[in-house]
Amino acid sequence: MRSFRSELDSTHYTAVDEHWAGGLPAQYGVAPRVRIGKSKWFNLLWLIPIGLVLLVIGIAVAKGIRELPAVQDFIQQYPGESELPENAPVGFPAWLGWQHFLNAFLMIFIIRSGVTIIADHPRLYWSRHSTPGKDWLRMQKPVPSDPLYTSKQDSITLPDGVGLPGRRHSIGLARWWHLGVDTLWLLNGIVFYVLIFVTGQWMRLVPMSWDVIPHSISVAIQYLSLDWPTENGWVNYNGLQLIAYFITVFIAAPAALITGLGMSPALSTKFRTISSVFSIQVARSLHFLVLAWFVMFIIIHVTLVLTTGALRNLNHMYASRDDSSWVGFLIFAASMVVIIVGWVAATPFTYRHPRVVQKVGYALIGPAQRLFEHIDSKPGQYAEKDISPYFWHNGKFPESEEYKKLQAGTFTDYKLQIGGLVDNPVELDLEQLRALSHHEQITQHFCIQGWSGVAKWGGVSMQTILDIAKPKPEAKWVIFYSFAVGSDGGIYYDAQPIEQMSYKLTMLAYDMNDETLSFGHGAPLRLRNEVQLGFKLVKWIKGIEFVEDFSEVGGGLGGYDNDHEFFGYRQSI
Ligand SMILES: Nc1nc2c(c(=O)[nH]1)N[C@H]1C(S)=C(S)[C@@H](COP(=O)(O)O)O[C@H]1N2
Ligand SMILES: [Mo]
């Protein structure tokens, strides 16, 4: 068998500079806009003046009605705080201060890397089809009419201080930050849940009587009329605070986890009943709305903490004391120094040490990714009616003479080469491949960048190929080589664990939606492995090699995007 290894780029990339990822130039999107009706778009920046006008009107109304005797009686009856149970704890223990700090610190990285992930496909949908023009929110121009427009072309740049990192298409690194820090944030959250229930602190976070509603209305009138309620957060929160904290701790945080997992291709394929309604795109849209809640919460929370007796409030959370000394402020200021240093350093550090980010991220989230990979779903989740009207293209199209020649001859001279650690190395042309037992499946594709689509794939099950080639027991990985080069030269390839080659949904497709696979989608042959993200599904396959390990192949990290763009080789989430 001809070796394809010499056609790989074996450079070991260790930094992100202007040449990285093929020197993809910066491209800024547009201000976020939401679709209204069929094709009208509302620029969300308008919410700033509209919000200010509404605030002024709200203040005028609240000031007006507060004069009314009935409203005064109402406020007297519902001053703002529901009564706490007798045994509710008073004050804040030190562990709460630590957890509050850790939570804030970790969320900085989660939010910033999350925004970078959205920027890689700056559109949100309510259906899994990701059809251009059907997005409900976009931060990018409408999709151009070019039929081969790729989702990589669609990605946008963020300022380095906003995104983590900010560079265009740095999603591989953003995901290590996002998923890696998530595990720490969840751990902190679990400790928090346990401790609040053990110590009774939960009573201060859970509304226990419906009178929280009139109390909240009363507090809203008091805030808006600029005659603010007297705060005594050391003992009890007012109704609005209580509701905001309750939503944040008991709804938004768990929703962040659930909607995050809802985007996993492996889980989505496994839990078909749930994912038929709660699709990957619904999960992604809700995940974004959870982010919007957190950002809004942080802004209002910090504003109110600093404007309703800052010193005392800071003492509560940062020094576990209830007075107006400067101790809490000093600890808060020190914690802000840590947060700001972390904020400023994160993106430059990532560009300088991307391999460290990749390694630490994998150490943190890798176990969960490995776990979900063991999901072997059967075909049959989707039906013909679910097939997407539009299926995005992605990647770098083949341009080599070798490929062009084959393409000009409608691939009659094409031969798939299968070799490496097998008892029976073979070459199969398309006629032979089509003569093998036919496998068909309707499945959902999920690109790491964020779009998804359902298609019907026709071809040969990888199990059939294993039966023919007979891999030796030492073969642990299967390398798929492409005719196309990747973004910085060297052919595109990917390593897949051999175990997954026997999965029911792993196949080589030569047909898509009952037609011969098109050029853009990988003609003449492409891989499908439905527990993995799209980038691992090599298109324009020319060869398959069975190996013991992939450290000698290309950059040695298990795939083109792992070598070049710091992706991971297990991408079930
Ligand atoms: N040879 C090759 N295969 C590739 C890519 C590529 O750049 N080169 N891109 C991958 C990515 S990122 C995705 S999402 C899918 C896209 O497949 P599609 O264009 O059929 O949607 O192909 C994958 N296979
Ligand atoms: Mo992708």
UniProtKB/TrEMBL annotation:
Gene3D superfamilies on file: Oxidoreductase, molybdopterin-binding domain, Transmembrane di-heme cytochromes, Chain C
Entries under InterPro entries matching the protein: Di-haem_cyt_TM (IPR016174), OxRdtase_Mopterin-bd_dom (IPR000572), OxRdtase_Mopterin-bd_sf (IPR036374)
TM helices/strands, residue ranges: 41-62, 101-119, 176-198, 242-267, 288-306, 326-346
Keyword Membrane: yes
Keyword annotations from UniProtKB, A to Z: Membrane, Transmembrane, Transmembrane helix
Oxidoreductase molybdopterin-binding domain sequence ranges: 412-549
Name this protein carries in UniProt: Oxidoreductase
Organism: Cryobacterium sandaracinum
Lineage: Bacteria, Bacillati, Actinomycetota, Actinomycetes, Micrococcales
